[in-house]
Design brief:
This protein has about 425 residues and is an alpha/beta fold. The protein has 2 domains: about 120 residues, no CATH class; about 260 residues, Spore Coat Polysaccharide Biosynthesis Protein SpsA, Chain A, CATH 3.90.550.10. Helices cover about 55% and strands about 10% of the residues. It contains 14 helices and 8 strands. Strands 3-2-1-4-7-6-8-5 form an 8-stranded mixed sheet, sandwiched between helices. Strand 1, helix 2 and strand 2 form a beta-alpha-beta unit. Helix 6 packs across helix 13, helix 8 runs parallel beside helix 9 and helix 9 runs antiparallel to helix 10. The longest helix is centred in the middle third of the chain and has 32 residues. The chain is globular, with a radius of gyration of 22 Å. The relative contact order is 0.14.
């Protein structure tokens, strides 16, 4: 009897998970379409480029240099650095490379607070049409601002660029991160751009119009993932985040599992906070206004809960098989074989998807083998991170040290 109940619980849960996965899988296929392009526009947009930085003296100078190398009129953008909680020479390095400095007031507990103070200042000054946000470890393609100008002139109020990697082959972990970003850009953002849905703000390499910020009352995020939260605020305000694949940045990825665990704990805690704050509002808007954009983002916000549901379904399935087959040697053997087979299928499917992401990105597979083969472990560890975050949410924003002090010329010289 107990085995029967567990079996039907597992079946019902498995069916819901299958529908959820099928939804995202079908949408992902639209990422294989030819990437959308905005019509080229003459430079019309005045940009304020904002960089929130904490102990980034090793890398921030190269970022600022890449910004001043933009193929965009120098008189139509400025670079504003917000050094916060710094104990090194970040401010001095940024100033020596030509950036304007905003020293924040009061306690700055995270990037969201730094962006709020920068946005308040820029909106008060009223010179900028739009704000672009970067992390201090980024490098920026010379055409980034020109492509964001195209999007802005075409009516985009918020847009995310393409996040590439500075160090995809430096370690297995940095490779797994790179694969995740390539997948996100192609199978989430590009797919939704093709379908008229909303992309996700990814923390850096994005643009938001000052007009939209004024409608939102400035930058007002409170979770540990300000980008995720701002994506929800845009959709609730009736704006979708556009995807601009030719606006490219290069991001430094963590090298070790310990760094990865710390960063993904923050991301997962922030996504759980986002689900708690915005999940109900997105679903209510989707129902009351019949907005597919809101429904799609609500499903995205559900991902931590779906991860846990998948894990619970797997445990229930194993228990059901044990109770159904009885604790006999053959029953135990079949249960172990089924569990091992499920893990094997997941590992092969994850590695195949990782390989596809590398090849579709036109990135050399050489040097990526460890990341491709271990990608399933990287994803599986996210289950443990989600479980830990459900029990104990991270309270503070902890920075990841960045040391890959590359220039754009050095990056271009690598065998990418």
């Amino acid at each position: 009897m107990r085995g029967t109940v567990l079996f039907w619980l597992m079946t019902a849960g498995g069916l819901l998970l299958a529908i959820y996965s099928l939804y995202f899988g079908v949408i992902a296929l639209f990422g294989l379409r030819r990437r959308p392009r905005y019509p080229a526009a003459a430079p019309k947009t005045c940009f304020a480029v904002v960089i929130a930085a904490r102990n980034e003296e090793a890398v921030i100078g190269n970022l600022i240099d890449s910004l001043f190398a933009q193929r965009y009129p120098r008189t139509m953008f400025e670079v504003l650095v917000v050094p916060n909680n710094c104990t090194d020479a970040t401010e001095q390095v940024a100033r020596s490379h030509g950036a304007r400095i905003l020293r924040p007031t009061g306690a700055v507990k995270g990037k969201g607070e730094a962006l709020r103070q920068a946005t308040d200042l820029l909106l008060k000054e009223g010179r900028a049409d739009a704000i672009c946000v970067f992390d201090a470890d980024n490098l920026v393609d010379p055409d980034f601002l020109a492509r964001m100008n195209d999007a802005y002139c075409a009516g985009a109020a918020a847009a995310q660029g393409f996040r590439d990697s500075k160090n995809p082959r430096q370690s297995a972990i940095s490779g797994c991160y790179s694969i995740c970003y390539w997948m996100l850009s192609r199978f989430y953002n590009a797919a939704r751009e093709s379908l008229g849905l909303s992309s996700l703000i990814g923390g850096s390499g994005f643009m938001v119009s000052c007009a939209l910020l004024r409608r939102l009352g400035g930058w007002n995020t409170h979770t540990l993932t300000e980008d995720y939260e701002f994506s929800a605020q845009c959709v609730l305000a009736g704006e979708r985040v556009r995807f601009v694949p030719d606006a490219i940045i290069f991001d430094e990825q963590p090298l070790t599992f310990r760094q990865s665990w710390k960063q993904r704990r923050r991301w997962t805690t922030g996504s759980l906070q986002g689900l708690q704050i915005y999940g109900g509002r997105l679903l209510a808007q989707a129902i009351s206004e019949k907005r597919m954009i809101s429904f799609d983002l609500w499903l995205t916000f559900l991902s931590p809960a779906i991860q846990m549901a998948a894990a619970v379904a797997g445990v229930l399935g194993t228990l059901a098989m044990l109770l159904w087959a009885a604790p006999t040697p053959l029953g135990l053997l079949l249960t172990v074989a089924a569990a091992a087979g499920s893990v094997l299928v997941s590992a092969v499917a994850s590695s195949a998807a990782a390989l596809a992401a590398v090849l579709l990105h036109r990135h050399p597979a050489q040097g990526m083998a460890k990341s491709i083969l271990s990608f399933w472990l990287f994803l599986a560890s996210w289950l443990a991170i989600t479980f830990v975050s459900l029990l104990h949410r991270q309270r503070s924003w902890d920075p990841i040290p960045h040391t890959a002090a590359l220039t754009l010329d050095q990056l271009a010289g690598q065998d990418r």
